[in-house]
Target: Formate hydrogenlyase subunit 6/NADH:ubiquinone oxidoreductase subunit (Chain I)
Amino acid sequence: MNFPFVKEAVNSLFKKPSTERYPFVKKEAPLGYRGRILFKSDKCIGCGMCIRVCAPGAITKSTKKTDDGEEITMNFFMGRCTFCQMCADFCPRGAIELTNEFSMITEDKSNLNVSGTFIKKLPPKQQAGSQTISKQV
Model:
């Protein structure tokens, strides 16, 4: 019997492995890497542009009426995200960024959710008698 792989197997026993023992070896993401989403809810205006450009549908928006206005919650599910960066590119306020965090290994799906909540305030109500309409003659 001819076993051509035996010679390679014996030689490999004494070689340094070609892989690294992650996570024991610290690695850094290369420049321009697109990793986990960072959502800045204080910059968001709730326009929904990110939802419209997200092809896999990884972004959802939920709203709830409050006394101050409208409470908006933006949810980003990293399990569906393709990290294309379209949401960040189209955000008019720069509320979405992709970090260089590449390790998203988890056993719990809830760790793949990134969300943020903010209040979109209603415009102030005008008094009934304070409206004046001027006519040009």
Summary: The helical segments are 5-13, 49-53, 86-90.
